[in-house]
Amino acid sequence: MSELPHVRPAKPAEPESGTRAPLSVIDILGFVCGLFAFASLALWGFAAWSFPWNLVVGIAAPVVAILVWALFVSPRAVFAVHPFVRALVELLVYASATMAWWSMGQPWIGLGFGIIAVTVGVIAGRRRFA
After folding, report:
1. pTM for the predicted model, two decimal places
2. Local structure of residue 50 (DSSP, 8 states)
3. Residue 100 near residue 85 (C-beta atoms within 8 A)
4. Which of 26, 83, 114, 125 is least surrounded by CB atoms within 10 angstroms?
5. Helices (H), the chain
6. How far is CA 110 from CA 44, 103, 118, in A?
7. Under a CB-based contact definition with an 8 Å cutoff, are residues 101 and 116 in contact?
8. CA angle, 22 as apex, 16 and 26 as ends, to 5°?
């Protein structure tokens, strides 16, 4: 047995500083879903409310959604939360955009967006766990 070479597992090579994994189609679709959700909330605020409130809600709704997204969901989130909390916050933003479309009288756009956003979120979430 002493004739066998002594082998130790090597530490995996660390990526170079300033580099990251290349973007995939799911990453791009997730980004587009987020942008669509924020734009939907802005459109809902400006279209569904009367004059003085449409300015307030049209600006405040997407700003609040972007703030919540930046705090909990973004790749560089301020708070590191459990992945299920991250998924719940992401789902709440998508659900609010879906409900905004429904309240504007466009349920099919809301339903279509909801299905696409949840599907992309599930695929991205499963990939993060792998």
Report:
1. 0.80
2. -
3. no
4. 83
5. 25-48, 51-72, 83-103, 107-129
6. 12, 9, 12
7. no
8. 150
CA distance 93 to 7: 51
Query: Which residue has tokens 């090579």?
Result: 13
- Give CA separation, 111 vs 36, 75, 96, 101, in Å: 13, 26, 12, 9
Q: Residue 103 is which amino acid?
A: S
Q: How far apart are CA 28 and CA 22, in angstroms?
A: 11
Q: How far apart are CA 127 and CA 29, in angstroms?
A: 14
The three-state secondary structure class of 129 is helix
- pLDDT tens string 39-67: 999 999 999 888 888 999 999 999 999 99
The whole-angstrom separation of Cα 118 and Cα 121 is: 5
Rounded CA gap, 29 and 37, in Å? 12
Tokens of 57: 């809600």
User: What does the DSSP 8-state code read for residue 20?
Assistant: -
Instruction: Report the candidate in 21, 56, 45 with the shortest Cα–Cα distance to residue 100.
Output: 45
Length, in residues, of the chain: 130
pLDDT tens per residue across span 99-129: 999 999 999 999 999 999 999 989 988 877 7
Tokens of 108: 């099919």
